Amino acid sequence: MNKDSIALLPAARKDELIVKELDGEVLVYDLQRDKAHCLNSTAGLVWKHCNGRNSVSEIANFVGDETKTFVDERIVGWLWMNSKSFICWKMRLRNQLIGPA
C-alpha cells in the first residue's frame, strides 16, 4: 500500500460545543470537559476546514490559499495535537471512509 492510498481526515466535533467567531478568532467552549479554547485566525481556518472530508494536505492548501501564505502540513498536525478534545480523525483508505462519522 503506498502512502497516497491512506489519508487522515480531521473532523471538528460538533456535539456539546458552543462555537463563536469574534474579531478574527474562534472561541470554542467544550460542554463535556468544561473548557474554553480560543483559536487564532490560522487555527480557526483549520477548524473551518476540518469537515471529515479534507485531508491534512488539503486543509494546509485551503488555509494557505485563504491567508496567501505557505502553510506546512505540520502546522495542521500540530494544531490537531493541541486540540484533540474537539477534533477527531477519520481515515480514507482507497477512497473509503473508516472511523467515526
Outline the structure in words:
This protein is α+β, with helices and mostly antiparallel strands and 101 residues long. Helices cover 30% and strands 34% of the residues. It has helices at 41-49, 56-67, 73-81, and strands at 6-12, 17-22, 25-30, 35-39, 87-93, 96-98. The longest helix has 12 residues, at 56-67. The protein is globular.
- Classification by helices and strands: alpha+beta
The count of helical stretches stands at 3
Provide the helix percentage: 25-40%
- Largest sheet, described in full? 3 strands, antiparallel
Radius of gyration: 14 Å
Q: What is the residue-averaged pLDDT?
A: 79
Give the end-to-end Cα distance, rounded to a whole number of Å. Answer: 24 Å
Element-by-element helix/strand order = EEEEHHHEE
Low-confidence segments, ≥5 residues, pLDDT <50? Answer: 91-98
What percent strand?
25-35%
User: Going across the major beta sheet, what is the strand order?
Assistant: 1-5-6
How do you describe this structure in short?
The chain has helices at 41-49, 56-67, 73-81, and strands spanning 6-12, 17-22, 25-30, 35-39, 87-93, 96-98. The protein is α+β, with helices and mostly antiparallel strands. The longest helix has 12 residues, at 56-67.
Label this structure with key terms.
single chain, 101 residues, alpha+beta, three-stranded antiparallel β-sheet, 3 helices, 34% strand, globular
Map the helices and strands:
Blueprint: E1 6-12, E2 17-22, E3 25-30, E4 35-39, H1 41-49, H2 56-67, H3 73-81, E5 87-93, E6 96-98
Antiparallel strand pairs: 1-5, 2-3, 3-4, 5-6
Helix pairs in contact: 1-2, 2-3
